[in-house]
Amino acid sequence: MMEVTFHNRESEIKEIMNTLSVKPRLITFIYGPINSGKTELITNLIEQLPENYVVFYINLRGKFISNYDDFVRALFKLDREKKEYKEILKTISEVSLKSLKFAGIPITEGILDLFFREKTYEDVFEFLEDYFTEIAENKIPVLIVDELQKIGDVRINTHLIYELFNLFIRLTKELHLCHVFAVTSDSLFIERVYNEAMLEGRCRYSLVDDFDSETTLAFLGKYGFTDDEKMMAWEYCGGKPVCLIELINTGENRRERVEEMIGIRTGQIEGLIEDAKAFGYKISYGAEEIVLNEEQILEGLEPFRTKDCLKSNELSKPVKLGLIKANILFLDPVKQIIKPQSRLNLLAIREVI
Ligand SMILES: Nc1ncnc2c1ncn2[C@@H]1O[C@H](COP(=O)(O)OP(=O)(O)O)[C@@H](O)[C@H]1O
Ligand SMILES: [Mg+2]
After folding, report:
1. pLDDT at 103
2. Which ligand has the nearest atom to the CA of 43?
């Protein structure tokens, strides 16, 4: 297998660096289709940050959060060296060798126990405010929560997500203490966020999409693709990094591999239509349960026979929700457009209809 290294995200990195170079005022939501490279971009960016930044990167991927304890566990990380609280903060503020990165917010056993005993958000959020205040005296704290939608529906007394948004607003707009980035691939979640009154004027949106054609061709050029192979890869995979990497690693039989990938995706979409025909395709949206039949699914796919992307209002709400939930379509609430999650999905849709 070839070692694939991080490829050009200059404009996205520049945009985030600009945000980081001024004092925190807004929450930044980083969104985009599945596997477009959001996490990769953030991970790479963290590595490049100068020494005066302290990054707390929390990835909720694979975490199951249904109650208060799960949430506290996801957010914090026990400092194994059994330091005192003041000592932890002191280390964070004083070490100046390079920028610091933490997967989870380091705290002492005592504080963690206290959180588990008291079980109130106020304690946790007050603590975080104090924590970032102390760090901000010497450094610039950056809080990044990846896959934030994982707590979108969690309700513990009140909706957790709103409590968290309140904290984020306090940290940015009100106190200018800490940069806050929230990352998500979930279009329906980002749509909710976009329409949320409490966030109005308090956040900005940054799209991390698949590579454009120029970036894609340059990326493939680094791995010895011929012009023909580059064109084939762009035709089938568009600029979806994972898909391109798959081709890079395939070596010889690249055309067979892309055809196989399209075959698999086509089969999955056909399976979904078959389910819709037999049982109705069920999705939950908040408290609603929506059931789509075969005709509705096909109605949602049909426009893509000739188009690559639609205006958001061109599909009826249930159809749109269903195809987004099935990860076939991606909705950009900022630009108000719907498009397939990837070029591969577009081609598979065309196979199906
Ligand atoms: N700029 C890039 N350069 C090289 N590989 C990338 C790049 N962006 C993404 N990838 C590859 O694509 C995969 C999916 O990216 P990821 O960041 O996990 O997507 P997302 O977080 O948007 O769902 C990663 O495992 C990584 O290997
Ligand atoms: Mg990710």
Report:
1. 85
2. 1
